[in-house]
């Protein structure tokens, strides 16, 4: 097994008496696009600041390329950071901004200009060298900040919610461009966001954080389809959660009692285990279907048209505290007030330890 590019070992951090990171260990491979995903206060930005050298952890070590960088200042570690607010110098040209890090390294003017032009061409702004930042759009300024970070050829590029200030259309465009640039340059990107769709669009390594801990990590497809924890199932996309208890286990199938009745799902947990069943919206079937697990009936409370699909909320008749979340085809004719049968393919039900 090859050595990781970044090796975070048992890192904890406190601001005064407040513990914001709690025994974090994480390995990041060369050439990967890692997303640190979590709600506000989960510790993801603090972890990024520790990686960038802006914060020294209270406990633990950070190794980059095998070297202990725990106490190394930002300018002396092989990382650069792209901030949400771009942090461009307004009095400098775009070329001057991009070449600033090289200037601090003592690179001569001609070489600096040539490399800055190359970096701007990489992000699609080859003609902007002589412009000032105020002459560019928000998306263009973001690309300048990215070029400035990449021009010094860091081992790791750190991105602190870099798309948060952009509108939806531009944010999606920049997602495509970021992924394409990362593949071209081969630099490891570590990107902080609270946007689940952004995480799934960009990451090949997704790290879900909550309350200073790592709840789940792995390829985004695995984290979405088979989350490790209840928090991961509800934060990385939506889920309907059924509390349950295993009452029978045989032939690699368990019977789970739930508020909507017994449900048989694949599994090997022993009888008596308290679990939760999570069902993604696209796997819920409203109207019932042969060969699926019945989940009772429900009354549709809301239908929201979202372009390519309809998001449907329905209240369980068996347990009024339970709300089903379904994603149906845009052409579905369901309306608020309809009473419908609810079911799901048992192979799509996620079993979680409660």
UniProtKB/TrEMBL annotation:
Cellular component GO terms held in the UniProt record: ATP-binding cassette (ABC) transporter complex
Q: Note the superkingdom of the native organism.
A: Bacteria
Q: Which GO biological process entries does UniProt record here?
A: quaternary ammonium group transport
Listed GO MF terms: ATP binding; ATP hydrolysis activity; transmembrane transporter activity
The alphabetized UniProt keywords are:
ATP-binding, Nucleotide-binding, Transport
InterPro entries associated with the record: AAA+_ATPase, ABC_SmlMolc_Importer, ABC_transporter-like_ATP-bd, ABC_transporter-like_CS, Mo/tungstate-bd_C_term_dom, P-loop_NTPase, Transp-assoc_OB_typ2
Please give the family membership noted in the entry: Belongs to the ABC transporter superfamily.
- Kindly provide the name given to this protein in its UniProt entry: Spermidine/putrescine ABC transporter ATP-binding protein
Taxonomic source organism = Rhizobium loti
